[in-house]
UniProtKB/TrEMBL annotation:
<dbReference type="InterPro" id="IPR003140">
    <property type="entry name" value="PLipase/COase/thioEstase"/>
</dbReference>
<dbReference type="InterPro" id="IPR050565">
    <property type="entry name" value="LYPA1-2/EST-like"/>
</dbReference>
<comment type="similarity">
    <text>Belongs to the AB hydrolase superfamily. AB hydrolase 2 family.</text>
</comment>
<feature type="domain" description="Phospholipase/carboxylesterase/thioesterase">
    <location>
        <begin position="27"/>
        <end position="208"/>
    </location>
</feature>
<dbReference type="Pfam" id="PF02230">
    <property type="entry name" value="Abhydrolase_2"/>
</dbReference>
<dbReference type="GO" id="GO:0016787">
    <property type="term" value="F:hydrolase activity"/>
</dbReference>
<protein>
    <submittedName>
        <fullName>Esterase</fullName>
    </submittedName>
</protein>
<feature type="region of interest" description="Disordered">
    <location>
        <begin position="1"/>
        <end position="23"/>
    </location>
</feature>
<keyword id="KW-0378">Hydrolase</keyword>
<dbReference type="InterPro" id="IPR029058">
    <property type="entry name" value="AB_hydrolase_fold"/>
</dbReference>
Amino acid sequence: MRHAAPGDPGPGNPAAGDPAADDTPAQVSPLVILLHGVGGTPADMAPLAALVETALPRARIAAPPAALPYDLGPHGFQWFSVDDIDEAVRPGRIAAALDAFVATVEALQRAHGAGPADTVLVGFSQGAIMALAACAQHWLAHHVVAIAGRFAPLPVCWERRTVVSLVHGRMDGVMPVAHSELAAARLAELGADVRLQLVPRGIHMLTPALLAPAVHAVLEESTFDIGRRR
């Protein structure tokens, strides 16, 4: 492999004195991974994907299916079953699904030539649950946008390089908003960079009321030079 000597522009390096070398920051195309809810499919994330694509035209967008077929219906996917779930068994089911979740994210990163520093995980419901759980233990993404998600249990540590944006509807009758409020408080205690956006009329669906603040969170917390559309 050829290494450029000091003062040698080398392939792809602007020469000294080139205005582009001084004025143009390095551009990174972020990998935005969209994670559907339990019983859902990647198609459920299409409206969010379209908004992200419009706002971040240079972003690479992926929406994988969860690892397992949904066991309470004929269609869809899940990371873990919610059949007969309660607070006693939920943490174990999440923990059992983590290896498959992390493997899915890392496979997408390899496929797109991305790493944690240029990855954004945007999850809804169970997708948000898995993203939060995984990033408590792994340097997996620069930013997690958790829409109507939760921890189970609340974390005892956090990977501080990962920024967290929690978006939750106050009228969510499936995943009570208190879960995001508790998550925000715990993450703040752990020194995380966390933001909480509560949506007054938001329910447990990816309606425009939740999509708009989620996309705003991706834009606001991004540190990438990604050619945003203003």
